[in-house]
Structure formats: C-alpha cells, structure tokens
Queue: 2 jobs
Job 1
Amino acid sequence: MSQPTHPAFISYPKQATFGRNLPKNKIYEHSGANTRLKELFVEQVEQIVWQYKLAPETTNLPAKPGVPEIQVFAIQLKTPELNLDVLRCIDGAVQFPIVFELSFDGKTQVVAAYKRPNETDVSRWVLSEYFACGWLPNDAQRAAMPLALDLGGLYEQLLKRLIPLPARGREGLADLVARVELVASKQREVDKTASRLSKEKQFNRKVEINAALRQLKTELEQLSH
C-alpha cells in the first residue's frame, strides 16, 4: 500500500543537496539568541542540517529580488512539539527564505513562513506566521518540485502548498498571506463574540450579540473563499 503524501513534501533535485550540519552556536551568534532561546534549542532540537540549497546554479532558475536562493533545513527534534521561536531565531540568523522539514519519531512535517526583505531596510526581513502541513511518515512519497520560471515563482508555489486557504484567481503570495492573517483575526472575533453570547443573560443583549455574530460569520465566510 502506498504511503500518504502531501504536495508540500518535495523531492528536491540531487544537485541541490548541501547536507551540512549547522551548529547551534552559529545560529546564536547571528541572531543574538537570549538564554531562554538557547534553552529551547537545547531542550527541543537534536540536530539542524542544511539539507538543500535551491540557487540558480543548482536549479537552473534565475534569482529574483527577495529570493536570491531558497534554503531547506532539516531539523531533528527531541520533543514532538517545537516552539516556533526556535524557527524565528533561525530565520532571523539566515538571510534567505527557508523551508523547514521537522522530524520526530519517524515522521516529518514541512513548515515555513513567508519571508521577505523589509521595504524600508533591505538588510532586515519580515516574517509572516508559520504555515505547516500535517505530520507524514518519513518514507512517504515525495511530490515533484513545482515548475516555475524563477526562484521567486518556486518560493511562491512551495508556500502556497502549505497555506490553508486556496489562492483566488490572480492573487499573489503577499495578498494571500495577508488574507490568511485577516481570516485568523476574524475567527478570533467570532470566537470572542460567541463566548459573549453564551454568557449573556439579558434577552435584548442576546439578540444584539447574535446579530453581530451572524455578520462576523458572513465576513469570515467571504474572506475564506
């Protein structure tokens, strides 16, 4: 029986293999990690391997502004949960977009944030929230690398495979990520309003809150499609 697969679990080209261990202290040096972050690395991370370097010379795809290369880091975990501050720290230390493959107990999960240069200071990077697929068996079938005209297009395809909402017509990556963040914010409003409704005793107030809740749910539905 074939193993379940996920479109974000990619078979990267052999010539892009880099396969170097990344010492934790190098990350600390480049990110200015504090004591708490260093403790998280020690408790949760077994090993970090710089697995693939997707660059013009390893993919035959030209670089794009903001995406000169894409790095793929394989992280072997000591614990089933990883604090996302660990990934933020690594993303802060490495000046390229990164796709992470986390491994624990025979399973792998692909995780990445949309990472782009800050418009006012190109030496700094802006990170979105992290997107992830579910955990897959390590031996699951990997998907073919998506076709793209350049590394920017490849990065967009890799991330869209992790983002929980389908992109609309000609919606670019930045707009899609902004919409995902709006959906999350609207969902929090829905949850908060539903909680208020369940606690409200007064009938008139209940009617008002219920109307507000219906409106929020309509807005959430529109944003989600």
Job 2
Amino acid sequence: MLIEGLLLYLGLLVLLTFHEYGHAWMALKCGDDTAQRQGRCSLNPLVHIDPVGTVALPLLMIFLPGAGQFLIGWAKPVPVNPHNLAHPKRDDILISLAGPAMNLLLAVALMVLARIGVMVGSEDMFSYCARMAQLSLLLCFFNLIPIPPLDGSHVLRNLTGMSYETFAQFARFGFIIIIVMLQIPFVRWGLGWVTSGTLMAIARVVGLPIA
C-alpha cells in the first residue's frame, strides 16, 4: 500500500508539473516572459511545488483511510504580467486554459499507453496508465472550477470584467473555500461523473472500452 501510494503521488506530481508548464509555455507564447525569468517554464517539479496543494493535501488524501478514492492537488500558480500581453483578456484566458488543456492531452497520451499495455499483455502498465489518465482528467476539470486560485476563476474574471482588486479579495479565502467545497458530496460526484464520462470517451477513441 505504501508503494502504491507513493507511485500515485509521483504520478500526481508529474501531472501537476506539466499543468504548470502549460501555463508558463502559453504565457511565453503570448509575449509574457515573467514565468520564464523566474524559472517556471520548466518540467522540474521542484520549481512548481506548493506546500499545501502539492504536498500536504495530496499526501493526506492518499494515506488517510478511505481518502485515496478521491485525489486532488494543485501547484504554485504561474506568475503572469498582463501588461506584457498584446491582448490582455484573450491571452489571459488562453494562459489559464493551457493548464487544463495540457492535462487533457496527457490523459489521451496515457490512454494510448494503456492500450499498448493491453497489446503487450502488461496488466500493470494498463492499470497504472488508466488510473493516471483518470487523475489527469480530474485535475483538468477541478481546475476549471471558478474559485481562486483555480484556472476557472481567471477565465470568469476576464469574462465578467472583474477588477484585479476585487479578484484579490476573493482569492484571500480561495484555499479555504476549495477545501470546504471538496467535502460536499454533490461536488465530488459532479467531478467524478464528468471525469469518468470523458475517460470512457477517450478509451473508446483509442480502442480501449472501459466498463
């Protein structure tokens, strides 16, 4: 159980790293090199670690009895200077969606690897890749929730024209709201439903139906 938990945590760490790299890469493409200058445009997990979202909360959810069925985490937000963006609102939305998009792409790649695992007769490869694909999709949809500092909140701010000052006030309580929200059964059910549905759709596309 310890080895399985550590492998799950390692997979989460990789997924979070790619997620933040997606943000940093898109910011650079949109003209903002702030993240690059701070060393965040990198696949080194150490530069993206958040003490609560990357370490404390995931490890508690993995190793507390009964908690490992639902694993969520986040990394340190990538810094973005809107003054460096040619089209601040549009580019900020693109940067915000780049992280979840990266998780979606990773889920597709992982399901392809799971299909290869079936072809070569490796049950362990299939099982681990399928579980990581599910986790990647969960991170994708979790981050689209419009609560600071999650990516969906930045999209909502730009679409509604909310000021940075007002957004900052909401962001002060964001982590508390997120942790409380995750205790609501309906929220967990909704995330699980959209995650499972998308996973099954991807599985069918790659020729790997999952019951």
